[in-house]
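For the sake of transparency, this paper describes our internal protein records without simplification. The remainder of this section carries one protein's record, kept here as part of the documentation:
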Amino acid sequence: MKTWTVTAWLVAQVSALSAEPLAGPDAAYQALWNDPVVTRRIEDGIRSNRMDDVVLKFVTADGQPLSNVTARIEQTRHEFLFGANIFMLGGFPTQEKNRQFETLFTGLLNYATVPFYWSDLEPEDGKPRFAKDSATIYRRPPPDVVVEFCRAHELAMKGHPLVWHQWYPKWRPDDPQAAMRRAEQRIAEIGARYGAAIPRWEVVNEPCERHKYADKWFNLPEDYLWRSLRAAAQFPAGDRMMLNEATTYSWLEFSAERSPYYRLIRDMLERGARVEELGMQLHIFSEPAWRLTLAGKQFAPGDLFKVLDRYSDFGRPIHITEITIPALPSSSAGEQSQAQVARNFYRLWFSHPRVEAISWWNLVDGTAAKGEDKWKAGLVRNDFSPKPAFEALDQLINHDWKILLDTNSAAHSVVTFRGFHGTYVVTAQAGGQTVKQTFQLKKGSPNEWIVKL
């Protein structure tokens, strides 16, 4: 596989593409994603990695086989994590818009990225904004508010991030060692308060960037990554610790086991650090990058698979942690391009055996970080009307990848089906009696369910 770096060849490609009007995916892009080898791997991967066979048996109260049972088999939740950041929870100017955001989030997703940016969580030294009555900061709801909401709506959670070289508070110590000791103290405080409630943590954000541009950002000590992971190791044993890497080092500067992110992970694991999951961002934050994507010259399916396959060496779950896909040009054509690219990415990631979570970044247009709204990368417009990308992902998550069956066992007491991993409710009727039971369909489990009537 080629090494994806900014080479003279790539610059020439961008220059050539920039001379043309911005359009949708071209013939080369379509050919790559319609390649029978690619489509077969995606389809086979979804069937083998996300689904299992179920044997559903109906019996009487004393355990005897019971035939002629009418049943509805409905999947209510995914085991796979489909998420987004939840930074705008309670952050809109009206209660109506806040309710719209909540409905949007819970109707599509089961996983939330909770903000723990140090500069906003603790703008004053020793006065963290944990509690519900904390002062309002845009895109930074207090963690207590988010935890309460997520628990009420059964959303899985991930804290993001504990340490990031770009997001230190203004009062931080200037001395690198003193700053690191204060960061370790912060990690301990967060772990004590939220370690039992939030099971996943992005311990360090974008460490490869920090190491490459050490003089550009705040001067953390050289061993800050190891010390951050060591501090986070004090969280509850069930919590999963993660590194979260930027787009360039996750996908573009890739040279197999020589890749900077690969070597960094290997080094931390060899030193005994808790790195239970691997995070990879995919942000398209420039028009040239978007043109390359639509031309099939960047983020091609074969290259995405090669990256995921190589990082599977570590035997860790992979999370696609932050996704920005533009809707450019700002027209219905741009929105259709966004939808097509999003659908292709999600299907590929969902098919891979090591990927366990996919998280969009900003759900609503106009709610991104400063400078990022120009990409129109929300799944819904700023009036909450759904874009084609929202409809495409909703179709995948809530329809194509969920099971709803109505069946009658007729002369038999057994029904078999193949379903996606997750939570199911079986509502069975026989002889004027109705019974409702909940089951978990898990990968590799026997998945033999018994309903007594």
In short: The first helix runs from residue 8 to 18. The CA atoms of residues 56 and 415 lie 5 Å apart. The two ends are 58 Å apart (CA to CA). The first strand starts at residue 51 and ends at 59.
